[in-house]
Design a protein that fits this description.
This protein is 68% helix and 0% strand. α1 runs antiparallel to α2 and α3 runs antiparallel to α4. The relative contact order is 0.16. It contains five helices and no strands. It starts with 6 loop residues before the first helix and ends with a helix.
C-alpha cells in the first residue's frame, strides 16, 4: 500500500511552511531589535560549555528561542518535501520547489552560525536576512503552485503583443 496525500492536504502543509518561515523572520527581527544577536556567543551551542541558554540572561533566551524556532521550520520544510513525494497526483514542480526550501534552510543554518562566529559582521547579518526573504519567497511560490492545477502555462499577453 502506497501512502497518498491529497492536493488539498498538501496545500495545508505548504501553508504551514509559509507560516513557519514568516514566524522565524519575525523572531529573527526580535533578535536583532533587542540586541540579542550575540546572546549566545557560540554556535551551534549557546555557550562553549552549555547547549541551552541560561535562564538569567534575557538576550541569550531570545537568541536561543530563535534557534529553537529553526527546528520547527525544519520540520515544516521536511513535511513539504515528504508531502510532495506522496501527493496525488504527483508533480515534479512541487518537489523541486520544496527541495529549494531544504537547500535554503541548510544554507540559512550555516549562515546563521557564521553571523555568530563573525560577531554580527554587517555583511553576514544582511546576507542572513536576504536569504530569509528568498526562503519565504520560495515557500510562497510553492504554496501558490500547490494551489493551482498542473498544466501548460496560460498565455497572458494579447495576440497583438505576441506577434
Amino acid at each position: 500500500m502506497r501512502l497518498a496525500l491529497s492536493a488539498r492536504a498538501y496545500r495545508r502543509i505548504t501553508f504551514g511552511a509559509v507560516l513557519a518561515l514568516s514566524f522565524i523572520t519575525i523572531s529573527g527581527a526580535a533578535v536583532r531589535l533587542t540586541g540579542s544577536g550575540l546572546g549566545c556567543s557560540d554556535w551551534p551551542t549557546c555557550e562553549e560549555d552549555q547547549f541551552v541558554a541560561a535562564l538569567d540572561s534575557p538576550h541569550a533566551m531570545v537568541e536561543f528561542v530563535n534557534r529553537l524556532v529553526t527546528g520547527a521550520v525544519s520540520i515544516a520544510i521536511i513535511a513539504a518535501v515528504l508531502g510532495a513525494l506522496i501527493r496525488v497526483p504527483r508533480r515534479r514542480d512541487l518537489l523541486w520547489w520544496s527541495l529549494g526550501l531544504v537547500v535554503g534552510m541548510v544554507a540559512q543554518i550555516v549562515l546563521g552560525g557564521m553571523v555568530v562566529l563573525l560577531e554580527l559582521a554587517p555583511v553576514s547579518v544582511i546576507g542572513h536576512f536576504m536569504l530569509s526573504m528568498v526562503l519565504l519567497w520560495n515557500a510562497l511560490v510553492l504554496h501558490d503552485r500547490a494551489s493551482t492545477a498542473a498544466g501548460p502555462a496560460a498565455v497572458v499577453a494579447p495576440p497583438a503583443v505576441r506577434r
